[in-house]
Specification:
The protein has helices at residues 13-23, 43-53, 57-68, 75-78, 80-87, and strands at 26-31, 34-39, 69-72. With 104 residues, the chain is α+β, with helices and mostly antiparallel strands. A hairpin with a 2-residue loop joins strand 1 (26-31) and strand 2. Helix 2 runs antiparallel to helix 3. The termini are far apart. The protein has one domain: rbstp2171. It has a three-stranded antiparallel sheet with strand order 1-2-3.
Length: 104
Amino acid sequence: MEEKKHLTGEATKEQILMWKGKYGDIFQVIVDNKTCYLHKPDRKTLSAAVTLGQTDPMRYNEVVVNNCWIAGADEFKNDDSYFFALSEKLIELVELKTAEIKKL
């Protein structure tokens, strides 16, 4: 039987269930052997991120990561290569529903 490789920053199933109860959807990002967990951003977070991102595009990513961060390996916040990899996935945190409009 193959042993599961432990990831730096990995949470237990119990922690993930607790987070789901608190935040709803939880997202796990894995780079190399490290992982982190984020929840979906709310309007307030996205508003701040977009506002700050207009003058400094990297601030958008920093605001989203800092406000949606639950737990994980510190490298995602402190090491640029991990932060950039995480930044590429942030758009996937925002779930867009399809709207329909009808003129009546």
